[in-house]
Amino acid sequence: MLSTNQFKNGNHIDVEGTIFKIVEFQHVKPGKGAAFVRTKLRRISDGNVIDKTFRAGEKFRAVRTETRKVSYLYADGTDAHFMDSESFEQVPVAEAAIADDLKWIKANDEVDLLFVDGAPSGLNLPASVELEVTHTEPGLRGDTASGGGTKPATLETGAEIQVPLFINIGEKIKVQTESGSYMSRA
Asked: How far is residue 144 from each of residues 1, 148, 167, 184, measured CA to CA in Å?
């Protein structure tokens, strides 16, 4: 069993038969009344994020999780298909549940696939990825590294992010996967 005082971001818990991932949590101890825990939980089945409040000390069933190295093959509109690097078995995952993560990986990229109670449910991405810029407006004269401002750019995976004005088509850039923000040139 897992108590509210053992919560960590990324833990998985079973709340009334539904499995959630803890996105963030905050212990609140008001001056008057009992302490409680305010949480943001992501439902594993469909990826929806909900806010839920629990009494301090409340207990939940801890959920068994494991990760396996897989290669991303393709997405067909309903499922994303991965291949287990050890058994070469193909594993389909509902595309809706991992849509946010798919925009940071290309075909044949190796990632960690998270299994919750034996069923595939999500991806553990690296902190940053290197992707090529496929479309952006050209930089104007005077746009330098020290000059401020950003412009939209489309990456090779189809993701759109804001990049500095001096970035051009064909350049590889480093993107933070958590926030989707530009970090540096690769």
From this structure: 55, 8, 10, 14
Is the predicted pLDDT of residue 38 greater than 90, yes or no? yes
Cα 28 to Cα 31: distance, rounded to the nearest angstrom? 10
Task: Quote the distance between the C-alpha of residue 135 and its chain's center.
Answer: 24
Q: Does the 65-124 domain belong in CATH 2.40.50.140? A: yes
**pLDDT greater than 60 at residue 108:** yes
CATH fold group of domain 2-62? SH3 type barrels. (2.30.30)
The whole model's pTM is what?
Answer: 0.68
Alpha-helix runs per DSSP H in 20-159: 99-102
Does residue 165 sit in helix, strand or coil? coil
**Annotation: CATH topology of 128-185:** OB fold (Dihydrolipoamide Acetyltransferase, E2P) (2.40.50)
Between 49 and 143, the more confident residue is 49
Alpha helices in 20-148 (DSSP H): 99-102
